[in-house]
Amino acid sequence: VQLVESGGGSVQTGGSLRLSCSASGDIMRTSCMGWWSQVPGQGMVRVARIDTLNVTTYLDSVKGRSTIYKDNSKNTLYLQMNRVQPEDTAMYFCDAYAVGCSDALRSRGEGTQVTVSS
Question: What is the percentage of the chain residues whose pLDDT exceeds 70?
Fold first, then answer.
C-alpha cells in the first residue's frame, strides 16, 4: 500500500491547515492510521492516530486544536490543524499499521512539510 501526503505549506501562527493522506488501497477500515512529525535532527513524534473503531488519540501539545479523521470511501486520512504554532513546524508523515495501533508499521508516506511563521 502506498501513502501520499499533501496539504502542507507555509502558514502564519494561529492559522489552519488540513493535511491529507491518500492510500492506494482500501486500508482505512482495517488498519490503524496515524500522523507523525519530525524536525531535522530529532526523532519521530506521533501526533495523532485513529484506530479501526475511530478511537482517536493525540499528542498533548496538539490536543484540542487538531483533529484526525478519515474518509473510508476515499481511502483518505486527514489531519486538521488549527491555531498552529511555530513549534508545529515539521515534516508530517502518514502511517498505516498492520491492523492495530500496536502492530508493525505497514507503510509510511514520504511526508509533507509544514512551516509555521510567527
Answer: 100
Write the single-letter amino acid at 38: Q
What is d(CA 34, CA 58) in angstroms, rounded to the nearest whole number?
10
Contact 27, 18 (CB under 8 A): no
Total Cβ atoms within 10 A of residue 15: 13
Cα torsion 51, 69, 47, 6: sign: positive
30-54 mean pLDDT: 95
Alpha-carbon distance of 78 to 108, in angstroms, equals 14
Contacts of 45 (CB under 8 A, 6+ apart): 36, 37, 38, 59, 90
